[in-house]
Input
Amino acid sequence: FQNPTGYSYSTQKKQALLDLAREHQFFIVEDDYLSELSFDHTSRQPLKAMDSKDQVMYIKSFSKILMPGLRLGLTIAPAPLNHGIGAAKQFSDISSSGLLQRTLDLYLREKTWHQHIQAMQKFYSARCQAALKALAEYLPQEVRFTAPGGGL
Output
């Protein structure tokens, strides 16, 4: 869900973007930090899942969806970028806490992760519906807006 619009690319638009990247030989950075927060229960496949030519660098943060101070995430990068990304990470902070990494790993494997996501979906869906209701009620009819399918 793009911020601030809430827009999500269709599968066809994602494929067109991948085709452009292949044709013009560039990499795409996909920053996925809220894909789990779908209000409309539509399954949205990450661009990286469609990437058969290793052109997408996928970045997943757990800070916004789980705990802001956690500062853990993951990167799945195209092979030519791996060394540079690893060196940049080591240069910036040597490494993330091993204890925090292991704790997050165990948490993600438990059912509590799915329960947390369901609770977040319910909470933010209700907030979204309240905001949409207020927009419809208080904004002039000339103002157009689109209801997001998810996000914060």
